[in-house]
Amino acid sequence: MRTAEVKRRFLAHFEAAGHRVAAGAPLPADDPTLLFVNAGMVPFKPYLLGQRTPPGPRMTSVQKCVRTLDIDEVGKTTRHGTFFQMNGNFSFGDYFKEEAIALAWDLVVKPVADGGYGLDADRIWATVYRDDDEAYALWRDRIGLPEARIVRRGKADNFWSMGVPGPCGPCSELFYDRGPAYGRDGGPEVDEDRFLEFWNLVFMQYERGEGSGKEDYPVLGELPSRNIDTGMGLERMAVLLQGVDNLYEIDETRPVLDAAAELTGTAYRTEPDTDVRLRVIADHVRTALMMIGDGVTPANEGRGYVLRRILRRAVRGVRQLGYEDPALPHLLPVARDCMAPSYPELATDFERIASYAYGEEDAFRGTLRQGSALLGRALSGTSGPLPAGTAFRLHDTYGFPIDLTVEIAAERGLDVDVDGFRRLMAEQRRKARQDARAKKTGHADTGLYRSLLDAGGPTDWLAHDTLTAEAT
Ligand code: ATP
Ligand code: MG
Ligand code: MG
Ligand code: MG
């Protein structure tokens, strides 16, 4: 089943159950705590918080998401993209646990011929919050899931809040057992690649008190109005329904992966490091396409900086696989053709999108050329390890990635003082943070920032930090 069809069926299922279909929001989040929308609920926050009246008590959407904090997982796990799409259904004071569970289950196991996903019910596992006896009983008695496949988990995994006083509640997640070929038996606690998480159902029913983090806060009384917020990973469901190994092999990304293999003269599935690089390229090219499509342009800070890093990583990946000419003109149109059926504006706006992407690749190639000359001089003038200061200057002045410095030095039989480099980077980040804090007084506080962590998982502010830290 094509990814577009997985999406269509989701919306049709919930529309038939009385949900109003909402258009997804653009990737740049209209939210002071976020760089990018990172979960389906983000655009619905004002409704969930009771700040605005929703157009209807039941809504459903497909939301474009970016989670750059997952960047290190990309290509290594089978299930993390920097860009992905989250299908969601929402109830604002309308139905609650029982119907949310039944609606999700029905779609997942309904035969394909009848408009569902037709998953094998015997392979589905559910997790519930430790104390949520109600959800446990619903899975067991209403759905008929055997107790062996209902797992109770603690607050860190199965309790949701926005990180600040406000709504909170238990959640329940659905996992699919892909079988022994994918890893060890024993459920999601044992192997998260074999037991693939594909849907998270959040039951907002309590009031959260002051506190910090994912666990360290009191749960106060019941909310006057209870909400449902769910998120199903569209690509994850596509993985299951297309019978492929990982997220980068579904119909929306595989053609980019294949194009990258062809361009670099490599073969997918022959060598693990090459495979990771090809997957990273496929993921990042698509993410860059979607970001620029939604108006993000390369820059030295904020969203544009995340885009810049993503594009550079893609370009670097291609070079590491041995192709040194401009690569994006070969790859971006392939990503466009994969995504335009769902997002036609990518085709009509492609000239603009491509000019930013190709321009950035050209600039990066220039950077690499200049940096290489400086690096070449430094390397020929030393017999010991390359000093941290040189590596730092290459990075800071030329945007020269540390791993490239290390790689080129290694080709000359030299080490790089990477620890020293990291110390200099950490020092620079500390200073930048101090500056930012000084500037930010009176704006978004860290409580708001936390909300993002709890609400949708990783935050893009953190990811921004991560990207800076890894110095690609
Ligand atoms: P994981 O544990 O696999 O990292 P998560 O628990 O962080 O996922 P949620 O925050 O619960 O994910 O998001 C809801 C759903 O969105 C997940 O069940 C999954 O199907 C999907 N999802 C989350 N992160 C990603 C990602 N990086 N790439 C693709 N799909 C994702
Ligand atoms: Mg999870
Ligand atoms: Mg989850
Ligand atoms: Mg995650």
TrEMBL record:
The UniProt GO MF terms for this protein read: alanine-tRNA ligase activity; aminoacyl-tRNA deacylase activity; ATP binding; tRNA binding; zinc ion binding
The cofactor note reads: Binds 1 zinc ion per subunit.
- Per the record, the domain of life is Bacteria
Its keywords, alphabetically, are:
Aminoacyl-tRNA synthetase, ATP-binding, Coiled coil, Cytoplasm, Ligase, Metal-binding, Nucleotide-binding, Protein biosynthesis, RNA-binding, tRNA-binding, Zinc
**Which spans are transmembrane here?**
none
* Localisation: Cytoplasm
So what EC number does this one have?
Answer: 6.1.1.7
> Which cofactors are named for this entry?
Zn(2+)
Where is each Alanyl-transfer RNA synthetases family profile domain found? Answer: 1-472
Which Gene Ontology cellular-component terms appear in the entry?
cytosol
Q: Which EC class is this protein assigned?
A: ligase
Enumerate the Gene Ontology biological process terms: alanyl-tRNA aminoacylation
Catalytic reaction(s) noted: tRNA(Ala) + L-alanine + ATP = L-alanyl-tRNA(Ala) + AMP + diphosphate
According to its record, what is known about the domains?
A: Consists of three domains; the N-terminal catalytic domain, the editing domain and the C-terminal C-Ala domain. The editing domain removes incorrectly charged amino acids, while the C-Ala domain, along with tRNA(Ala), serves as a bridge to cooperatively bring together the editing and aminoacylation centers thus stimulating deacylation of misacylated tRNAs.
Family to which this protein belongs: Belongs to the class-II aminoacyl-tRNA synthetase family.
Q: What does this protein do?
A: Catalyzes the attachment of alanine to tRNA(Ala) in a two-step reaction: alanine is first activated by ATP to form Ala-AMP and then transferred to the acceptor end of tRNA(Ala). Also edits incorrectly charged Ser-tRNA(Ala) and Gly-tRNA(Ala) via its editing domain.
This protein is called Alanine--tRNA ligase
Q: What is the lineage of its organism?
A: Bacteria, Bacillati, Actinomycetota, Actinomycetes, Streptosporangiales
Coding gene?
Answer: alaS
